[in-house]
Specification:
With 180 residues, the protein is α/β, with parallel strands linked by helices. It contains 6 helices and 7 strands. It has a 7-stranded mixed sheet, with helices on both faces.
Length: 180
């Protein structure tokens, strides 16, 4: 005997199985040494130091979040800044669509997830645990603080210009120890 599915039941089943994939993150190569990590509604761009090879160890990352929910993806691939970061063995990372007021509670995990995913895609798994310097202007300043407060053990420093109020409110001793 064949079991038939009523149309609305079939639709519900399809949606139930498709729903987890709707917000699924995806890492894809944007250019040589550059990865875009898309996680609806935001995108992160991760770039290795210019001239990096498979044998190059990336020692850390400069992360610049986007102000407001603007697009700052081009910052990560700016050749002048990539050369500067490369002098220290650092890569660069930027974002589009991140709301700085939610970085500490929501988006910080996505920044670090993007580093891990792009690191694997680009053949540099060390990015998943790389130390970082976070900087930003306006709500991207809140991004910088949110990242440093979320991972103070990996934060080298953070810098803000015209910062918004800090995400987590009052900082604990470990968070206050991060230079900023």
């Amino acid at each position: 005997s064949t079991t038939r599915c009523l149309p609305f039941v079939c639709t519900l089943l399809v949606l139930a199985f498709a729903a987890p994939r709707l917000g699924h993150a995806q890492a894809k190569q944007y250019a040589p040494g550059v990865c875009d990590y898309e996680r609806n509604p935001v995108t992160f761009r991760v770039a290795l130091p210019l001239g990096a090879t498979a044998e190059t160890v990336v020692r850390g990352m400069f992360i610049n979040g986007n102000p407001g929910t603007d697009d700052l993806l081009g910052w990560a691939i700016n050749s002048q800044f990539r050369r500067y970061a490369g002098r220290f063995g650092f890569g660069t990372m930027s974002s589009r669509g991140v709301d700085g007021t939610r970085t500490f509670n929501q988006y910080a995990a996505w920044f670090f997830e993007a580093l891990d995913g792009c690191g694997k895609l680009l053949g540099h798994p060390e990015l998943g645990n790389a130390p970082f310097v976070a900087l930003g202007n306006s709500s991207a300043g809140a991004n910088a603080w949110g990242l440093a407060a979320n991972k103070p053990d990996r934060a080298i420093a953070f810098g803000t210009n015209i910062p918004m109020p800090p995400n987590p409110g009052s900082a604990n001793a470990q968070q206050r120890a991060v230079p900023g």
